Amino acid sequence: MTVTELRAVTKQKFQVEIDGQPAFVLYKGELSRCHIEKGRGISPETYREITEEILPKRAKMRAMHLLEQGDRTRRGLEDKLLKSGYPPHAAEEALAYVESFHYIDDKRYALSYILSQKDKKGKTRIQMELRRKGVSQEDIDQAFSETEEDTDPRETIRELIRKKKRGEGPIDEKERNRLYGFLMRRGFSSSEILSVLREF
To answer: What is the mean pLDDT of residues 35-49?
Structure first.
């Protein structure tokens, strides 16, 4: 195995290519400690130390740091680690580590997300956004079933109409269409929107 390229990612981090293929990202100090230089061979022992010890340990620390900034889904955290240059096996080890302490929990994330968004968006829109974040449909359904008892989407629609409505009195057809479009984009169902609009 030969180091064929060292490409700067930042001032301190370098993408290491081995035999023409991107292998991993190392910090300056790690490069010198492991004697990684362009054109120089890399021993199997050094390669094993980097891939099985240095990178998984650093990926765990990175995952913990990312979770300190805010709750994330499993896929969201995995994407961040891969974009930071960690190989898939190191990212997977870090994910297993944080999962073992329940630092990531997609159902809990979905529950929290629903509670924070239900006064602004409809169920369809929230579901779509959670699926985009990598939450399974099963976790989404369970989270909704835990929050729906005390949630009436029509009350949320009424509140949004009161905020968006122009002036007092009844709504004319033009405004009704504007509000209908706005509420549909927020993910409320047509039947819910129409039943509330009739009140106005």
So the answer is: 91
pLDDT at 151: 64
Cα gap 88→112, rounded to integer Å? 28
Q: Tell me: the pLDDT tens digits for 133-144?
A: 999 999 999 998
CA 87/CA 174 separation, integer angstroms = 54
Would you state the structure tokens that stand for residue 45, as one six-digit string? Answer: 């022992």
Closest CA to 123 of 133, 114, 136: 114
Mean pLDDT, rounded, for 79-83: 94
Q: What is the DSSP string of 151-188?
A: --HHHHHHHHHHHH--SSS---HHHHHHHHHHHHHTT-
Q: Are 18 and 42 in contact (CB under 8 A)?
A: yes
Overall average pLDDT of the 111-118 stretch: 88
Q: Residue 192: how many CB atoms within 10 A of its CB?
A: 17
